[in-house]
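Notes, p. 3: input format for complexes.
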Amino acid sequence: MAILPVSRDRPAMIRVDALLRDARARVEPSDAELLLCHLLGKPRSWLFAHGDDVLDTQAAAAFAALIERRATGEPVAYLTGRRGFWRFDLRVSEATLIPRPETELLVELALDRLPGSGVRRVADLGTGSGAIALALACERPSARVIAVDVSPAALEIARGNALELDLHNIEFRQGDWFAPLAGESFDLIASNPPYIETDDPHLAQGDLRYEPAGALASGADGLDAIRIIAREAPAHLHAGGWLLIEHGWEQGEAVRALLTAAGLIDAATQRDWEDRDRVTLARKPLDGA
Ligand code: GLN
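Output follows (289 residues plus glutamine):
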């Protein structure tokens, strides 16, 4: 797939600026630019200095196909296979949820509760692409992070991300929530579980249509997964250890109640940058319980 310099003896094929002009009319301009950069393996800055370069017909056809898929709704992250999260450019696939900026709030709240030194044991339940686990492992090199997912295909992606980022204080295990953590306890357990109501019409809209249903929806009230995590967390937390759960903006009160009913204390909900309830945290009492 060649980018050819403009030349008098070669018939100009398709100029980059013309190709982009058409694409920007079909999809979000920034999506068009991102997809072209992805296809050509170029940084965004390249585009603006190379509008008069021409692409061969093969490259132009490949770009047209990407634009077509984007126009019918496929998420950009699945078309490029990547999504920025924290300070990483993570690999994602249709086996993983696309990491959201809201989840960075959960990472920050977790880091506030993980001292920079000392071996802390951390679990990330339903890790998907590994976003939360990788951010915690990267920021706390002395911590030991275990990332769990029920999907082998998601774990494959997450493992690849850990390799790319050269993070070695992270271990991946396949299974349902706490199933692969029998008999183990942690200083901190984090999760961005599925939390959308099964019949929420949003599941049939936008990016959500392409994301794994099992990573999004969780029962009639969206709380099935959180109920399991809340119920089993105390047995897997050290005294004083924290549980942090991401949830829907209308679920704060229900999640606080579930964590409190499970025997955790100090349940509190934090709001995201859109000022919506997003993460609830609670800890295990120091005297055991
Ligand atoms: N935040 C996602 C959304 O509502 C859902 C993610 C999840 O269920 N964990 O679009």
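The longest strand covers residues 237-246.
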